[in-house]
Amino acid sequence: MHTQEPRGRRIRFARPRRLASQVLAVQLALTAGVTLLAAALFLAPLSNNLDDQAMRRALAIAQTTAAEPGMADRLLSSKPTPDNPVQREADRIRRATGAEYVVIMDERGVRWSHTEAHRIGSHVSTDPEPALSGAEWMGIDHGTLGQTARGKVPLRDQNGRVIGAVSVGIAYESVRDRLVGAVPGILAYAGGALAVGAIVAYALSRRLQRRTHDLAFSDISALLDEREAMLHGIREGVIALDKNARIRLVNDEARRLLGLTDTDAAAVTGKPLDEALPPGRTTDILAGRVTGDDLLAVSNSRVLVLNRMPTDDGGAVATLRDRTELERLGRELDSTRGLIDALRAQDHEHANRMHTLLGLLELGLTDEAVDYIAEAVGGHRATAEQVTGHIHDPLLAALLVGKATVAAERGVELHLAGSLPDEVVDPTGLVTIVGNLIDNALDAAVGSHDPEIEVEVDADEGGRAVHLRIADSGPGVPYDQRDKIFTEGYSTKRLPPHGAKRGIGLPLVRRLAERQGGEVTVDDRPGGGAEFTVYLPEALREATPAPAPQP
């Protein structure tokens, strides 16, 4: 069974869907349009130019004929007959110049010459008044011989009096023939230009097809939307740079990790990287001045892992991962392992003390047993009282008590000096600074000749500044490494058992100090070892004035 196609159904040409095909079609249409327009713009002035040339040629022939010696005398001395001398001379000039006609008339407008002999003696078909009044005229006009390019001049006698006029015509068909003859050449040039444009357009479309993977506009738009959703939805910071190191894209996670607000992120887009971000290791890694995989950096007290991958266009895409919590857990694991070792040693020491106490009791030396227990307990109590007597901030006091216990178990003496009121602006940051420096000091002091650590905390009286000094009896820091130890990822220690990267503690200390407008320096300790000094100008809250007593 055949179905009949409905009548009147219009055939629709499907538009190309692929980007390269659409661009090719547009370029071909533009090339063809420009070529045709250029040809038309060239032909229009050419036609006018050919008309002007024909009219000027007719006028020149008329002027030459009017200036012919004896022409005025022949007109005055003859009659308008087919064989008069004016007709013979006009016919000679017409054949010599190739004009369509050469008409000589008297002052009444009666022809003395004409291409058709039977028209001699009759009045001219066009207005002779301009020439008979003494003026020259040229133009395109229609007469008995059809449309011609004409030139008319007055004919004067020896005294300059107008006695007639000369009218010369150039066949307009010859002008049109010249124009038509020029069209094939013009079209050949236009066709060549169109062919070159088509080849260039095809080559460009093929290149565009390769670069766009033959996708349609809708596909590209969908990919862009998906890319935006993906980049701003993933929990990993992404920064895209062009070949001139200008920022092209900063996703939401990168803004958070770098501490940029939405306004800042919009402002830095398009700016050079060194202008958009403050100087430091993070900027150096993003710019490619520091290379490597999984590079560590500290930004706004956050530990970041950065990777930079170059792109084919000379730019780069960098990823940022927040490792602050992982690093904190790693450091806690280090502390836990140290505490486990300390507890193991303490358990061993506790067993020895219990055995000693048991022996004293079995020997009946009760007084000695009581003194022995008091001495053991009093040592720990004295340490806690000494710390809380100097340090009134509970977080820092608790840290120092714990560190003193770990130091004692590791065979290191911890000496505490100075005092600190309970008015710290950022207790967590201060605990991080002191904890990192004491951990480094403990690692350095263990195994030295006389292991000890000096911790000194001083606050300006009536001010807001805090001075920290933490010294150890270790090998010290060589002079050429004193700047490197504050660089993320650099460490003189071997990797811990759990494999976490070193080189974060001291950079984090410096970043926290600088965030409060302070600084961290390292020097040699008198007697050997390293001495770290931290200055925090705004670590304490402003003192509130005491209320005035009521009368």
Automatic annotation (TrEMBL):
**What does the entry give for GO biological process?**
regulation of DNA-templated transcription
Domain Histidine kinase residue range list: 426-540
- Enzyme nomenclature, EC number: 2.7.13.3
The UniProt transmembrane annotation reads: 21-44, 186-204
The record's annotation in SMART domains points to:
HATPase_c, PAS
Reactions it catalyzes: ATP + protein L-histidine = ADP + protein N-phospho-L-histidine
* UniProt GO molecular function: ATP binding; phosphorelay sensor kinase activity
Predominant location category: membrane
Which SUPFAM superfamilies does this entry report, sorted A to Z? ATPase domain of HSP90 chaperone/DNA topoisomerase II/histidine kinase, PYP-like sensor domain (PAS domain), Sensory domain-like
Top-rank taxon of the source lineage equals Bacteria
Record's subcellular location = Cell membrane
**What Gene Ontology cellular-component terms does the record carry?**
plasma membrane
Membrane topology, as annotated: Multi-pass membrane protein
Alphabetical keyword list = ATP-binding, Cell membrane, Kinase, Membrane, Nucleotide-binding, Phosphoprotein, Transferase, Transmembrane, Transmembrane helix, Two-component regulatory system
InterPro entries the UniProt entry points to: HATPase_C_sf, HATPase_dom, His_kinase_dom, PAS, PAS-like_dom_sf, PAS_fold, sCache_3, Sensor-like_sf
Please provide an example of a Pfam family that matches this protein in its UniProt record: PAS
What name does UniProt use for this protein? histidine kinase
Source species, please? Streptomyces coryli
